[in-house]
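Ticket #4471: structure export looks truncated?
Reporter: QA, pipeline team
Priority: medium

Steps to reproduce: submit the single chain below to the structure queue and open the exported record.
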Amino acid sequence: MDRARDLRHMRGSRQERRIGGMLKMILYLHIAGGSAALLSMFIPLVARKGGKTHRRSGWVFVAGMSLVSVTALALSAARYLFDPRPEAKAFALFLFYIAILTGNAVSTGVRVLRTKDRTGAHTHPWDLGMTSLLTLTSIAMAVYGIATSSILFAAFSVIGLVSGVQGLYYWLRKPAGRMHWWFRHMSAMLGACIAATTAFLVVNAPQAGFSRASLLVWLTPAVAGTIATAIWTRYYRRRFASDSHPAKRGTSPSAAVADPCRLART
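Actual output as written to the record:
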C-alpha cells in the first residue's frame, strides 16, 4: 500500500517537473520576444516610412510582440489552472486579456497593409474574429473589475473596448479616405508599443520604488501614448492634406498618389 502511494507520488512529482520545465521554457520565450520588441520598437518610429529599414525592423517588432502574446496566453492559462491563490487567478485573467489586447493591435497593424486597396467592407473571419474577441473580453473584464472593485481591471477594459469597437467600425465600413490604412496601421502599432513599454515598466517597477500593481505604472504609458498618437495623427493628416494639392508643392498629382509616403520621413 505504501509502495503504491510512493509510486503515485513519484509519478506526480515527475509530471510537475515536466510542467514546470515547460512553463520555464515558455517564460524564457516570453522574455525573448519582449526583449526583441523593445530593442526594435523605436527604429520603425524614426525610420523613413515604407523604407527597407522601417519594414525590416517592423517585422522584428511584430515577431517579438506576437511571441509575447502567444506565450502570455499559455502562461495565463497555466497560472489559472495550477496556482490555487485567488490573487493569482485574478492576475491570470488579466494577463489573458492583455495578451488579446496586444495580439489584436499587432494583427491589425499588419492586416491593414494587406487590405489597403479595399473599397468596401472587409469581413475576413480572422480580422472580425480578433476585434470581436477583444470587444467581448473587454466587456467581461469591465464586469469583473466592477464586481471585484478593481480599478486597474476596469480602467484597462475601457482601453480594450474602445480599440475593439473602433476595429469593428473600421473593418465593417467603407474606407473614409485613401490613406485610411496609414492611420489605422500607425495607431495599431503605437498601441503595441504602449503594451511593450507598459510590460517593461511593470516588470522593473520595484527597482524604481513602485509597486507592480500601481495604477501610475500601468496607466502612464497608455495616457502618454494616446496623446502622442493623437498628435502624430493630426500631423500626418495635415501633411497628406497638403500633399493632396501637389501643384502648390511643384509635384504632379499622379506622383503624389503613387507615392503617399513621399513626405513621411519621421
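Status: closed, not a bug. The export was complete when the record was re-opened. Leaving a note from the reviewer for reference: The chain is about 80% helix and 0% strand.
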